[in-house]
Write a structure and sequence with these properties.
The protein is of the alpha+beta class. It contains 19 helices and 33 strands.
């Protein structure tokens, strides 16, 4: 009660709506999480090219040299949609506070997991392509924001605070110190990691920049012909602190200097160009390189910046050399660089910044050309399907196929079938090999699959009985024997001494098959129908009864199947018999207004049996009828 009095003691404060509430802080953190989706979370460096990777990079996919390196991953939009969902929940008032916090905590936790999966995937792709991977401070700040959201909502669920809690009051409350200190430690640790990452990145960049001043190397050290890679590589050489000070202006200077005018000697760059092809015939790779070290050795001292460059950019030019600018301004690309064959002609094309001579005192000479691929190693072949086992299981028409690869040359994931379910005996499925792994086979094994697809015929599946003609005489005899055994057992257990079995005659069958084979339940029923002739005898000394009565009875089996050998597969111990009771009345008084009667499981007429067994099920089952009453023996004469 004292706390309530203290809270209400300051009416001016209670009337003023606090702004520093948990809900408002969560809204700010959520907006930051949405912004971080578009910020570079990772830095991947490949052959001098730095690539900033964010969520939208994954959504749109990555292309290099005109080819898709990473396919678009639209699922990564969850990193944006989940914070949007959290933001909506922070404004709606439809749910309870704890339900809102539970959903927000769950969404943020899933978002955090997706981010770390994204990080692992990017790192894996970078390592597989021999690239350098770094996590940027943006990623760290994003993780911190998500952790704060999770911690805040956890405290709400634990009852430590509420959405409308004024954090200024909460911080001043001694009982909240432990929770706040724990959060502060997590934030401080994450912030320290972010600072360390930034510092390490800056130090690495500065070292790289210093190393660029001392250029020694051979023709094989020449950078790859990639316009983005060359420009980004030179920018990466600039110290990070200086980049922060100069900003966008410095980057603009570098790009412009690359295309500066050269008033000196003419450089024929084609003389320093080399095209090489390697690998296996049909799957070869080509590279084009320019020996910039040799060009620098011969022309480096003769190339300089123009007056226009110096007057426009001044001291900023000290961060690059004229040779760096020239190299960044001239890029050569191949029209095809993979899956090459001997004798194939590929072309190389120069791309030169049109403003090159404006800022550099030099003249260059270049010409597009072609190269004929040669000296690729002949590739062998192997039967990729030799160690692939295709197994069929289940019951037609819902059988399934399973692929199992037992060799080390390929893997299970390299194969795909056009149909793996809904199979019947005689169906043909086609198994194919992923064509994208063929070049890898050539490179790893020196051989490729001799064929990329193979057909397999479905066999060995059982199928449900659909026609009475599929039942052989031998299989019918087995079921008839079970019917006889079941009825004789019931006679022995249930019939009185006044009842005697005269005849037990098989009349035929009713087959019911499901109209929808895809539904769960029984697929078919088989009724074996019998006519029972029972003699009933009774006398009370005054009157007597001695007569043969007819009873119609059945035994029912279910889910009968036809095996691969054509024989019937049925569990004869899984059967059903009628629940209906048929009464034979002697008409002789048994006292208390009753007569002496006999009771039998079955029906008085075949029509009654048919109505319950067949007619009552025709909404879900088709039926075939095969009944022959002519097989019934002549009625036994009544004994007098």
């Amino acid at each position: 009660m004292e706390e309530n009095k203290v809270t209400n003691a300051a009416p001016e404060a209670s009337e003023k709506k606090p702004r520093f509430t948990v809900k408002n802080i969560l809204r700010i953190l959520t907006v930051l999480c949405m912004i971080f989706v578009f910020c570079p979370a990772f830095l991947v460096s490949c052959s001098g090219q730095d690539v900033n990777v964010n969520v939208m990079t994954a959504v749109e996919g990555v292309k290099a040299y005109g080819e898709t390196v990473v396919k678009p991953q639209p699922l990564m939009l969850l990193c944006l949609l989940l914070p949007i969902a959290v933001m909506v929940l922070l404004f709606v008032k439809k749910f309870t506070e704890k339900l809102n916090s539970t959903i927000i905590l769950g969404c943020t936790a899933v978002d955090l997991v997706i981010w770390f999966i994204f990080r692992g995937a990017v790192k894996k792709i970078a390592e597989e392509n021999y690239c350098t991977f770094k996590t940027t401070p943006w990623f760290v700040l994003n993780v911190i924001a998500m952790l704060l959201i999770i911690i805040a909502n956890a405290l709400i669920l634990l009852g430590k605070m509420q959405m409308d809690t004024d954090l200024a009051v909460f911080f001043a409350n001694g009982g909240a110190k432990e929770a706040i200190e724990g959060i502060a430690k997590k934030v401080t640790h994450a912030a320290t990691a972010a600072t360390a990452t930034t510092t390490a990145t800056a130090a690495t960049t500065a070292t790289a920049a210093t190393g660029n001043d001392d250029k020694t190397g051979t023709a094989t050290d020449a950078p790859k012909a990639n316009p983005a890679g060359n420009v980004v590589g030179k920018i990466a050489a600039i110290p990070t602190k200086l980049l922060i000070c100069v900003g966008a202006a410095v980057i603009a200077v570098i790009v412009i200097i690359v295309v500066a005018v050269n008033a000196g000697k003419t450089i024929d760059v084609n003389k320093y160009l080399t095209v090489e092809a390697s690998g296996y015939d049909g799957y070869g790779n080509a590279t084009v390189t320019v020996d910039w070290d040799a060009i620098e050795q011969k022309y480096g001292s003769k190339i300089s910046f123009t007056g226009a460059a110096r007057s426009e950019y001044g001291s900023a030019l000290s961060m690059v050399t004229p040779m760096d600018a020239l190299q960044a301004a001239m890029v050569v690309d191949l029209d095809e660089d993979s899956n090459l064959s001997n004798g194939q002609t590929i072309t190389y094309t120069w791309t030169v910044d049109p403003e090159l001579t404006k800022y550099l005192k030099c003249k260059v000479k270049y010409k597009d050309g072609s190269y004929t691929v040669k000296d690729l190693t002949e590739v062998g072949s192997f039967d990729a399907f030799a160690n692939l086992d295709v197994e069929f299981s289940g019951v037609a028409p819902n059988g399934s196929a399973n692929l199992n690869y037992t060799s080390s040359e390929l893997s299970y994931y390299d194969f795909d079938a056009d149909k793996l379910s809904g199979l019947s005996n005689g169906d043909v499925i086609t198994v194919t090999i992923d064509e994208s792994i063929i070049p890898s086979c050539a490179e790893r094994l020196g051989k490729v699959p001799e064929t990329n697809e193979k057909q397999y015929t479905v066999t060995g599946l059982q199928s449900y009985l659909t026609n009475l003609s599929e039942i052989t005489d031998e299989d019918l005899a087995v079921m008839q024997q079970q019917a006889s055994d079941v009825y004789n057992a019931s006679v022995a257990k249930e019939w009185s001494e006044t009842s005697h079995l005269e005849n037990f005659t098989y009349l035929g069958d009713y087959l019911l098959t499901s109209k929808n084979a895809d539904t769960w339940g029984t697929n078919n029923y088989l009724y074996l129908v019998y006519k029972v002739q029972a003699r009933n005898e009774y006398s009370d000394g005054k009157e007597s009864y001695n007569q043969v009565n007819d009873i119609y009875w059945y035994i029912r089996f279910r889910d009968l199947m036809i095996g691969e050998d054509g024989r019937l597969v049925v569990d004869v111990t899984d059967y059903a018999t009628p629940y209906n009771r048929y009464t034979v009345d002697s008409g002789i008084s048994a006292g208390w207004f009753s007569t002496y009667c006999w009771y039998y499981y079955g029906y008085g007429t075949l029509e009654e049996l048919y109505k319950e067994a067949v007619t009552a099920n025709i909404d879900a089952y088709n039926h075939q009828d095969n009944i022959d009453e002519s097989a019934v023996p002549e009625p036994v004469a009544e004994e007098v």
